[in-house]
Design goal:
single chain; 0% strand
């Protein structure tokens, strides 16, 4: 005969009692059910193992023995040190990657503007890249010929300069007193020639290294521009889903500020270069286009760039004649006041709002860490940190 379910006929039998294990004494009515004791090594927060269907069911994690903890800690320290060595050895390449990312963020608004006009994405990236290449070639054409010309003129004038020195009795007296001729002949040995050749090879290596780094940054910038949307989406996908929307809004605001800063800085630099070019033509400075390029490039450096360009052009003016040098000094003194108090605030008011002290400290730290590149990315970095501090850190501190 089939057995009856005691829980179905006897109202005094509770479900807890019916589910008790065989061989155990049923609990009295009203007595709470016993709490099950987990097995050793069982983690209640760990989700249950789900069979993969291909490699079977995974086992429980290893017990946390002292040997396992120590081995894991030592392995973590070793991996951290290896990562440090890798970053240190690849520091130059990482700097180039940072420069390319910064340029891509700054040039992306131009790509977006072209896309709003109906230009396809690939064609928009191509047009922006060609514009950058043309500007770079224009700067090289403006700077290299004056340097080559002036160097050739100096080499051609060396014999005449030596003749003038020989005709000077004071110089002849010094040559005879200190045996300059014999010292020069003694210095012209194999070691001196080897060091000179090393300097020449070092100069060639510097030139080719600069060309290689420039091409690397250019290629990386084009790739980052072409895949900018995908890279941004990938970065947001790494954030947990519950915080992804807020992270995307803050990230887009940071990218907007960096792009606006780049556009504003380039506009101010182009205006400074064009103004310098017109002034150089008026006063008759040599190589006006090259001087304009120098002023435009140095004006991109925050805080000290405009002063550096003004000093270079003023030195060229003083080398020409004294009135021209004085005119250059007065012109740049007036122009810098107009740029600092009229042009710069209007252009940068809607892009970045950075405290002057914070901007100065950021520029100094950027120069100490990454040189000119650090000075260029200092202000947008501070603007991004200010946004994160205002939207994330300070509200969290107020809630605690």
């Amino acid at each position: 005969m089939p057995q009856r379910d005691p829980s179905g006929d006897d109202p005094d039998v509770t479900p807890e009692a019916s589910s008790a294990q065989p061989g155990t004494t049923p609990a009295e009515p009203g007595t709470p059910a016993p709490v099950p004791v987990p097995a050793p090594g069982f983690d209640p927060d760990e989700p249950p193992a789900v069979p993969s269907g291909k490699f079977g069911t995974p086992g429980r994690p290893l017990r946390r023995s002292s040997f396992l903890v120590g081995f894991t800690g030592a392995l973590g320290v070793l991996l951290a040190y290896t990562l440090y060595l890798g970053i240190r050895n690849a520091g130059g390449i990482l700097v180039l990657v940072v420069i390319a990312l910064f340029l891509a963020v700054g040039l992306n608004p131009a790509v977006v503007r072209l896309r709003t006009w109906g230009v396809p994405h690939g064609l928009a990236v191509t047009l922006v890249a060609l514009t950058v290449v043309l500007l770079l070639c224009g700067g090289v054409v403006a700077l290299v010929p004056p340097i080559v010309t002036q160097s050739g003129q100096f080499i051609d004038q060396i014999p005449s300069l030596l003749d003038e020195l020989r005709r000077n009795p004071t110089v002849n007296d010094l040559v005879e007193r200190y045996d300059v001729v014999e010292r020069v002949q003694g210095a012209a040995n194999a070691d001196t020639i080897g060091r000179a050749l090393g300097g020449v090879l070092g100069g060639a290596q510097l030139i080719f290294g600069t060309v290689f780094r420039t091409l690397t940054v250019l290629v990386l910038t084009i790739y980052f521009l072409a895949y900018f949307d995908k890279l941004r989406s990938l970065g947001y996908a790494l954030v947990p889903r519950s915080r992804r929307e807020r992270a995307a809004l803050i990230g887009d605001a940071i990218l907007t500020k960096v792009g606006a800063y780049m556009v504003g800085a380039l506009s101010i630099a182009v205006l400074a270069g064009a103004t310098t070019f017109v002034f150089a033509l008026i006063v008759g400075l040599p190589y006006p286009f090259a001087l304009a390029v120098v002023v435009a490039v140095t004006d991109l450096i925050p805080q000290i760039g405009a002063t550096l360009g003004a000093v270079i052009v003023s030195l060229v003016g003083f080398a020409a004649d004294l009135p021209t040098g004085i005119a250059c000094a007065i012109f740049f003194l007036i122009y810098q006041q107009v740029e600092n108090y009229l042009i710069y605030p209007k252009v940068m008011r809607r892009s970045v709002e950075v405290n002057e002290v914070a901007a100065l400290l950021a520029a100094l730290l950027g120069v100490a860490l990454l040189g000119v590149v650090g000075a260029l990315i200092a202000i947008p970095t501070v603007a991004a940190l200010q946004l994160i501090l205002r939207e994330v850190v300070l509200p969290r501190q107020e809630r605690n």
